[in-house]
Amino acid sequence: QVQLVESGGGLVQAGGSLRLSCAASGRTFSSYTMGWFRQAPGKERELVARISRSPGSIRYSDSVKGRFTISRDNAKNTGYLQMNSLKPEDTAVYYCAASSRSYYALSVYDYDYWGQGTQVTVSS
Question: Where residue 104 falls among pLDDT bands split at 50, 70, 90?
Answer without folding.
Answer: confident
